[in-house]
Each structure stands twice: as C-alpha cells, then as structure tokens.
Amino acid sequence: MNISKEKFKHDFIEQLMTRRAKSVKEASDWDKYATLGSLVRGYLARNWVKTNLKYCNTDSKQVYYFSMEFLMGRLLENHLINMNMLDICKEGLDELGINLEDVLNVEKDQGLGNGGLGRLAACFLDSMASIGIPGHGCGIRYKRGFFEQKIIDGYQVEMPEKWLEEENIWEIKHPEKAVEVRFWGGVKAVKADGRLEFFHENYEPVLAVPYDTPIVGFKNNTVNTLRLWSAEPIRKNFDFNLFNKGDYLKAMEYNYLVESISELLYPNDSHPEGKLLRLKQEYFLVSAGLQSIVRSYKKSDKSIKDFAEHVAIHINDTHPSLAIPELMRILMDEEKLGWEKAWNITTKVISYTNHTIMSEAMEKWPIDMLKSLLPRIYMIIYEINERLCSAIWKKYPGEWDRVARMAIIADGYVKMTYLSIVGSHSVNGVAKIHSDLLKDEVLRDFAQFYPDRFNNKTNGITHRRWLIQSNPELTELISDSIGDAWIKHPRMLRKLLELRTDKAFLDRIFEIKQNNKKRLVDYVGKNYSIELNIDSIFDIQAKRLHEYKRQLLNILHIMHLYNMLIENPQSNIHPRTFIFGAKAAPGYSVAKKIIKLINTVADKINNDIRVKDKLKVVFIENYSVSLAQLLIPAANVSEQISTVTKEASGTGNMKFMMNGAITVATLDGANIEMLEEMGRENIITFGLEKDEVLELYSNMSYRPKDIYNRDVRIKRVVDQLTNEFLPACRDEFAEIRDLLLMDNEPYFILKDFGAYLNAHEIVETLYRDKYSWQRMSASNIACSGRFSSDETIREYSGDIWKVKSTLI
Ligand code: 26Q
C-alpha cells in the first residue's frame, strides 16, 4: 500500500468517528483496534476484488486447501506487514498518542486448530498468497475454537473459548452464497434412459453459510480467500413444515442440532473418537466446499469434463476425505457423468497429506453410523471398495490376506486413510523419514499397489510470521547485515554464514536474544509472579502434550538436575530456566497427569531457596499462536525429543531454529533434515535411531526395569514419583511410574534417559563458551531458509497441484 502518514492519520480519525462515534481521546483499545482493522480491511478490499477478477480473467487453475483446522492466530499485524504499512501505521498512531502494540494485543487469536496440522494450514495460506498461487482455504467457522487452558492447583482445566464474542472484523458473511447440505434419509434408485439414477430422499437439510477472510500476500497485491462455513437451520420450507404441523419442539430441536455442527472444534489430536457430530462436521465441510467450487466453476462456460484441468483440491489429513465420494456424487448424480469419467476426474483433482503414522490416530468410522447419516455417500464408498478389491485380486490373484488388509470397508469400519489413498493421485508424508516409514512400513501394501502415488513434502513455516513478525530486531539485524533480498528468497539467509566469525555480529545476536528473553521475563513476572534470571539458559518445550513427545523425559531430567544440586550445592552448573507450554486433550488422562507432574515439580523447585539462583521451572498456561510468538524468540534451547518414528515432522522445531535456538533433538521428523541443512556441529542429537526403534518394536525386547535397576540416577527419579519427595498424594503419580517400568514401554523414556543427560551436559559446556554458542545460533538462523513454507508450497504447486504462480 502506498499511503502517506498524513492520509493514514486522517483516515484513522475519520473511521474512528464514523464507526465508533468517538474521538481519539475517548476511544478504548478495542475501539482503536476495530477502527484500525476496518481501515486495513478497506485498504485491502480493492486488491481482493482485483485478485479474484485476475484469476477469473486469466482462467488460472485454482487450488482449494480443505482442512478441518486453520490455526491463524492474530491477523492485524500480519496484514500490516504484508501490505507494507507497519511503519506508517506505527508512526502515525504514535503521533496520535496511541501505542500500536497495545492495539495489536487487543486482537483475540483465531484459534481454530489443535496444533501442528492446523498451523501448517495457516502457514500454507500465507505462502500461497505470498508467492502468487491462486490457493484458498476451506474450513469450518467454529463458534468455539480450541479450548482455553487454565492451570488450577497444578491440574489442567478446560474453559470454553469465545473468539466470536466480540465482532470478528476480518470476516465477510455471504448469505447469498449459501448451499444446502443433506443428512440422513434414504436413497431411491430410478431407471432412466437405461441408466440408474439415485435420489436422496427424506433427508434433513442444513444451510451452510460462508464467511470469507482475506489472506494478504507479502507486498504483491494478491489477496486470496479463507472461506469458513457456518451451519444454520434452513428457514425456508423445512422448519415451517414442522411449525405448521404444530411440532414446535421438533422444530426447536432441529435448530439446535443444526447449530451444533459448527459449534466447536474437537480438541483431540491423536485419538480420533468415533463421534457422530464430528462425522457430521467433516461431511458438512466437504459438501459445502465442493458445491460452492462446482457452482463457481460452472459460471464460466467450461465443461465439467475439464474440471480437473482447472481445479486442485488438497485434503489436510483424512478429515476431509469424504470429499472423494462427495465429488463422485456431484459428478454422477448432479452432472450426470458415468462412473469411469467421474472417477477419473475425482482422482485427478484430489491429493492427500498424511500427518501421522500412529495407527491409533488413523481415522475410521463405524459402518452403521456412516451408512445411516450419509446413505448415498456410503453407497459410493461401497462401490469404490468393490472396485479396489477386485483390482487387488486381479494384480495379486489368490492373495486373500492382501485384499483383507487393504479393503476400505472391513472389520465393521470404513477406513479413511485407505479411502484417501485410493481416491487421490498423490499421497505425501511431511518429512523424509515420515514419508519413508509410510512407504516402507505402515502403508507398504498401498505403496506397492500405487508406486507412483507416494511422495514426500517436508513441512515448512512462514518466515513472515515466525521471524519478521515475532522477532523484528533480529529481522533488522539480518537486513542490515546482508540486505533484505532474503525476505523474498529465504535461502539467502545462508549469507549469514560468512558472519559466523564476526564478533560484533555475534554480540548483536546475543543482545537481541537477551531483549527477547526480557519480554518473556516480564510476562512471567506479571502473570505468575515468578522471577526469572535473564542470564540463565532458557530451555523451552512448547507443543501439544503427548506421551510420544516425551515431556516426561524432560521433567525427569529436571528432577535429576535438582537432585544433583541438592546433593552437591557447590556444583557449578550454569543457571537454567525450563519452560513448558502444552495443552492435553481433555480425555487423555495420562497427558493430564504429566501436566500435574510438571507443575508439582515446578512448585517444589521454585520454592526451594537452595536452588534459587540455579533452577526454575515454568509452565505457561494456554499455549497458543500468540504465546508461541513470545516464547520462541526467547529460547536458547529448543526441546525436540520425540520417540523416533513418532513425530511425523514437527514445525515448532523449525520456528525455534529460525530464531537462533539450539535444538536438543532425536533423529525424528524434520529434525533430521534440519541436521542435514546445518551440519551436526550445530545441533545436539541423542538417543535411539530409527532402525533400533523398529528392531525393539519387532522383537519386543525392551525391559525398562533392567535399566531402572542398573542406573541409580534413574532409580532415584523414578522412585521420587511415589515416595514423599513430591508434595502430592501418594499414588498421584503411581500410574506414571508403572508406565515407565512396563515391559516394552513404547516411548523408550528410560532407555533414552542417559543419552539425554549427556546431551544436556553438552548444552551446558557449549553455552559457557559464549562465542561458540553464538556461532551455532547464527548458523541455525542462516540455515533455516530452506524451511520456509514458500519452498514447500512451490513443491506442492509444481509436483502435485500443477499450478503456476500468477505473479509477473
Ligand atoms: C481426528 C478425528 C476426530 C477428532 C480429531 C482428529 C484429529 C485432529 C487433529 C486428529 C489429528 C489432528 C492433528 C494432528 C497433527 O497436528 N499432526 C501434526 O501435524 C504436523 C503438520 O504436518 C506435524 O508437523 C506433526 O508432526 C504432527 O504431529
């Protein structure tokens, strides 16, 4: 945006007056935020319209990213940066006596996601807009996003999240673009012109109403769209019929059931529950999304037969996998294409990303549930399965077992992973090791059957939010040092490698880290009344709480450090601050116990004056995108310590790296590619490797009790879970102790404990030598450009979606 400061100030005052009927003096922070927001929205509207016109006029292929989650965080600052308005705005407001940061802090996070998968969708939208890909998000406008976490007496308590309580200034509702989604009922087959036609009857209709949010590209005048669907009762005939019949209660019940569809985001990220409402949500998303795509496609005079040349649809995990039978339904029942043609189009249009290898996390739906809620969709899946099974049989005659293993419908369930593979032309994992495991282990049968379909697309993160926005001082230092071309070409960050020996540069990196730590120290002081030592090593693990992510390994190590300090008060360890941020799924009781353990240990340590200057443990409540933007730039050490094979990729690992933290890592997920990019001298790795883990799983020979009996350090911390060491009721943590000592404990916590201790000794030694640490830190920043999601999106665009940038 080319706008002068004077014009901006003038517009702001006018807008404040017309929208809020207030002067600057009277305005609250919310007034100022709403005013600035609507001003920005006004400025970007022209480009939004222009972008849509351009896509239409140039007949560009469109990509739709279907996802049950979009974890967008705050939008205002992001828009200001991408529209090149941040400085003007900051200065202009300053002159009006308004502090921009206070205004930005008013905005609630748009938290419509659980974690990695949802945040990846948000980073991808930012990258698509920024490199000029005509790509749009399609999701659900949940009234309540991911729950708000409170810690009460050390326990996680979930509170409803209410991001829509105040007006959402970014969205535009489009009732004129609403579509109808149909549930329940039955299917009638009618013979017409020698072919069978199917009609869905006696269904319950739901109105899907879209709300559009602009996605602004970085200084390129592109504005794409995130379309979120909200469920509303059909006001037309349906409920009037009920009212007319005098069935008031039934009509009200209908309203309630409909609105519940977009009421809340399910907070599970690894144990999909087979809940009917979740299945409704998934179908609601894909049916609304596809109907609106087909409708807008048909407005041009293109033939439906050419649909695949103009549209690519990506499904973010299996959650939107009903897009496959739904597109088949639309093409066959509404557009009257035959099965072969419809199938050809569907598989060309759809592509699928898998985000987990854990079998318990793979989605499957009970046959009866799917069949009664979505009778026509079930028929189509049934037919897809029939055809799949006979194709397998044809290729591998006599191999009954193989057919049984690969069937989409089996054991009373519909397996969404298999449906997604069969119905798409591309299946990708999210880091090299993960894609290899899919191909060689978990989905081997399918990889043999469809050898060209499987590929890897290593995740990425948008450096615009995770560096430029969250770490402005570092951004400025980088641009002062190597120019600002890296912003459009993040691989150019590598130029910083030349400065690794420049002490003045390394000193600046250190100072900036201290400043970022100071902001976090202030936040912790204010919110938790815990005083942190800014010169201690800030060691952070921030991610969802899950056994495989091994927050437990981290806290056991902290208990060990504490034991060492108490035993040996003179020991000269470098002071450490351990920081956790993590939400547990509300029904995941072990994960919640681990939170209680972390808080119990934190209390004990933080209140023991003997270790006052050496050790602190902080659990930050309600980890979110905005808190991540505060935590990550303040980290010296990044904990990426999952059990090898379990973390598909991780993306937090990349964010910490980009902000100059040193990673303590297992060779899992994208940690491996991070190591390859920066060299092993710049990362601290430990623990079992892939082949060892697979070996232990297959021969079932892991006996943690042997380790416990052999290693006194381990015996002590494990015993401390249940003796009087912790001020908790005696058997509070007995379950954790039992899990750790169980034969074939699947996360190998005790097995990796010794190696983890050594890794932390290395951290300590390195940190003591300021310049060697800062050199590593600089190398991390320099090598992080490869993990920009711009690069990831270029690969998706070229290899999978076959779409080109519309820039230039
Ligand atoms: C499914 C059915 C019913 C209810 C909930 C769910 C559900 C919801 C969210 C299942 C899984 C998720 C989220 C998974 C997730 O975030 N996976 C992470 O994806 C990241 C992006 O690819 C990876 O970096 C992480 O390694 C992976 O754990």
Automatic annotation (TrEMBL):
Gene Ontology molecular function: glycogen phosphorylase activity; pyridoxal phosphate binding
Protein family membership: Belongs to the glycogen phosphorylase family.
Listed GO biological process terms: glycogen catabolic process
Location of N6-(pyridoxal phosphate)lysine modifications: K655
The protein, known as: Alpha-1,4 glucan phosphorylase
UniProt gene name: glgP1
Coiled coil: none
Domain of life according to the entry: Bacteria
Function text: Phosphorylase is an important allosteric enzyme in carbohydrate metabolism. Enzymes from different sources differ in their regulatory mechanisms and in their natural substrates. However, all known phosphorylases share catalytic and structural properties. Allosteric enzyme that catalyzes the rate-limiting step in glycogen catabolism, the phosphorolytic cleavage of glycogen to produce glucose-1-phosphate, and plays a central role in maintaining cellular and organismal glucose homeostasis.
Keyword terms of this UniProt record: Carbohydrate metabolism, Glycogen metabolism, Glycosyltransferase, Phosphoprotein, Pyridoxal phosphate, Transferase
